[in-house]
Amino acid sequence: MQGSNLDFGARPLRREIEQRIEDPLSEELLKGEFQGKDTIVVDVKKDDEGKVKHLTFIGTVGEPELVAATAASDAEESASEAEPAGEGP
Questions:
Q1: Where are the domains of the chain?
Q2: 6: which residues sit within 8 A by CB, 6+ positions away?
Q3: DSSP output for 17-82
Q4: Cα–Cα distance measured from residue 11 to residue 76, given in angstroms and rounded to the nearest whole number
């Protein structure tokens, strides 16, 4: 797992959080991407091996639980749209 090291404690984890969440989120905030939004949800995209591939920040207005449920259903819809016709679960 990236970000963990028994010799250095939490310092590598802190750097991972900065690089993967704080820095990109700060850039989007400075660009005004979330103007008028009161909740930001971090959506995690994983590769076939289950490793984190990409983080997406979604700004919405509303309760975090509702936003998370909406983000999850949107991700499911995107995945089902990407499947070829006649295939799938």
A1: 1-33, 34-89
A2: none
A3: HIIIIIHHHHHHHHHTTTTT-SEEEEEEEE-TTS-EEEEEEEEESS-HHHHHHHHHHHHHHHHHHH
A4: 35
pTM of the model: 0.57
DSSP SS3 for 9: strand
Contact (Cβ atoms closer than 8 angstroms) between residue 40 and residue 25: yes
Residue pLDDT, tens place only, 3-44: 556 777 778 888 888 999 999 999 999 999 999 888 888 888
- Which residues does residue 60 pair with via DSSP β-bridges, in sequence order? 39
3-state secondary structure of 14: helix
CA-wise closest residue to 75 among 56, 50, 49 = 56
